[in-house]
Amino acid sequence: MRNCARYLIFFQYIGTNYSGVVKVPPQQLVKKGVQDHLEDAVRKLKPLNPVSMSISSRTDAGVHALSNSAHFDLQRRDDKPPFAAHILVDALNYHLRTEQISVTRAHRVAGDFHARFCARSRTYVYRVALGACFQSPVPLTERDFSWNLPDTELDVEAMREAAALLVGVHDFSSFRAVNSDLPFKNPVRTLDAATIRTGVSFAQAHFHREVPFLELTFTSRSFLYKQVRRMTGALVAVGKGRLSVPQLKEVLEARDSLAYPQGLGAPAHGLFLTRVDYSDSDLQFSPQTDLQLSSEE
């Protein structure tokens, strides 16, 4: 399409009120996906082309993102030049102002760029609050943003020992949940990092008591369905003494989703997608490259 530009956008959202990040079927009217609202915002810019967005990283209902990404094409009317990146960000956020979704930055990219397949790594952080119970609640700022456990402490060293077993190239079949993609997805993934460190409450300086936090961080080029939540749940079980480090190793080596103990998976609302990384060259747009791609079509 003449005068059509492809954009990569980075965006954040609070996942509580959405069915997940990807769009939902039109007949599902209860909750929309984040993608539905992003595409609606692009349509309000009145492009000539149909709006279709490709999301880099799927997140489930209730999961949050500080930085997800997506690409889409946009052709302006009347031969107007493509939007400058900062103008596009402002325009999209104007139309998203009633949602808990915000575009943080945009890049014009080559016409063959793909937000999902060009991503080099993705990083998730899972937040766990300790000592949370009816008598000692967490701040409201944490209620929907952490897994709030009544335990006052976990065996963090055992959790780190267990997390080290997960790093590297493995068949992660035991840590993926069953869904319709199961027969078609290669279960072998490379987990680049799995770290556990202390964290803080968003309201630490203003709450009446100090709430201990743990942050579990996982980095990989890609993850299986619910892999991060299941790894988190297993590591917390190790911290509680419900699962030993050798038992977690046995679960991993079983390479079978049925080997994962029932009831261990971590809830969605403590999980944040925090980074999607690309190579610098992918984010440097070259008009000559786009002209060459157009001539080859």
Notes on the structure:
With 297 residues, the protein is an alpha+beta fold. It has 2 domains: 4-118 and 279-293, Alpha-Beta Plaits (2-Layer Sandwich); 121-274, Pseudouridine synthase I, catalytic domain, C-terminal subdomain (Alpha-Beta Plaits). 22% of the residues lie in helices and 25% in strands. The chain contains 6 helices and 10 strands. Strands 1, 2, 3, 4, 5, 6, 7, 8, 9 and 10 form a 10-stranded mixed sheet that branches. The model has no long low-confidence stretch (mean pLDDT 92).
Query: What is the terminal-to-terminal distance?
Result: 11 Å
The fold-level CATH name of the largest domain is Alpha-Beta Plaits
What's the total helix number? 6
Q: What structural class is derived from the secondary structure elements?
A: alpha+beta
Which term fits the overall shape?
Answer: globular
Please state the CA-atom Rg, rounded to the nearest Å. 21 Å
Low-pLDDT segments, ≥5 res: none
Strand residues, percent: 25-35%
Name of the level-1 CATH class of the largest domain: Alpha Beta
Order of helices and strands: EHEEHEEEHEEEHHEH
Q: What integer is the average pLDDT?
A: 92
GO molecular function, one term: RNA binding
Domain Pseudouridine synthase I TruA alpha/beta: 11-117, 162-279
Keywords: Isomerase, tRNA processing
Binding site for substrate: 124
